Amino acid sequence: MTAPTRNLVYGLCFMALIMVVGIIGYRVAGWDWSDSIYMVVISIFTVGYGEVRPIQAEGLRGFTMGLIAVGCFSVIFVSGAFVQVLLEGQIRRALGDRRMNAELKKLNQHAIICGYGRIGRMVAADLKAGQRPFIIIDKDPKRLISAREAGYLTLEGEATEESVLIEAGVTRAAVLATVLPSDASNVFITLSARDLNADLTIIARGEDPSTERKLLQAGANRVVLPAHIGAERITHLILFPEA
Description:
This protein is α/β, with parallel strands linked by helices. The chain folds into two domains: about 5-95, Helix Hairpins (Orthogonal Bundle), CATH 1.10.287; about 105-240, Rossmann fold, CATH 3.40.50. Helices cover about 60% and strands about 10% of the residues. The protein has nine helices and six strands, in the order αααβαβαβαβαβαβα. The chain has a six-stranded parallel beta sheet, sandwiched between helices. α7 runs parallel beside α8.
C-alpha cells in the first residue's frame, strides 16, 4: 500500500471514529438516533443548516465545537489524501508511458508477441528466462496490467493495425509471434507485418489445420497448431504409455 493510499485509509477511519464519538455524545445528551446522526453529519461537513435542537448546556456546546473542529480537520485530511491518490496514479501513468517510450526506442532485433493469452504468457515467460528483449501487444487493459506486473514491456492496441505494429518497432524487430486465438486476426497480422518488414521472422498460431496454408501464403515462416500438437501428444501417450 502506497503512502497516499495509507493516508486515505487512516483518514477515513479517523473520520468514522469521530462520527461514532459524536453520535454517542448526542445520545448521552438525550437525543434520539436520527437527530444525533443528522447533527454529526452537518457539523463535520460544516453544512450550516442550524442546530437540530437548542443547545443550552455548556458541556454540549463545547462538545459540538470540538466536534466541528476535529471533523473539519478530518474532512480536509481525507480530501487531501484523496487528491494525492489521484495525482499519484496520474504521475505513475505518465512516468510509465515515458519509460515505455524510452525502452521502445532502444529496442532492436527484438521479438514482438501479439496477444497475451495463455500461449502469450508462456512465450513471454520463456523469452524472459532466455533474456531475449520483447514487447507484448494486447488490447485488453487487464491483461496488460498483469504483464506489466511481471516486468514485461507492453503496448495497448489492436495488433491488426499497422500503426500499432510500427509503434512496437516491427521495422526493427527480428521475430514476431502472433498467438491470438483468432485465425483471421493472425492471418491479417502476418500480412501486415510481412509488408512492413520483409526480413522479419514470423511465427503464427493456427487453430484450424486448414489455416496453416493461408498463414504460410500470408508470409509466416512457421505455423504452430497447438490443438493439433496436443492431440498428437495425447495419442502418443495412449498408444505408447511407457515411451
